[in-house]
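Repro:
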Amino acid sequence: MQLVTTDFITGKEIETIQMVKGSVVFSKNVARDFFAAVKTLVGGEIAGYTEMMNDARNIATQRMVDEASRLGADAVVNLRFTTSSVMAGASEIIAYGTAVKFK
């Protein structure tokens, strides 16, 4: 499955199928919170949260790809990510785009 952030794929004629998306809600955990609190005192990247968000984006992307595959898509164009807070300590990550078929 080809994934691009553009609305076209160079050299390919495409036919739109429909919008596809995948989402996941991730929450923080006590160990990450403790180390994050310590890290905010000294500054720098909070690696545990970076890893958590990368994992969440990967899961959301795979769910979107699975939906596109079920529709017979060859690619997803206009791929975007969005994040929102659903409650204290929990965020939803959504991957979405347009499933397309090559002509």
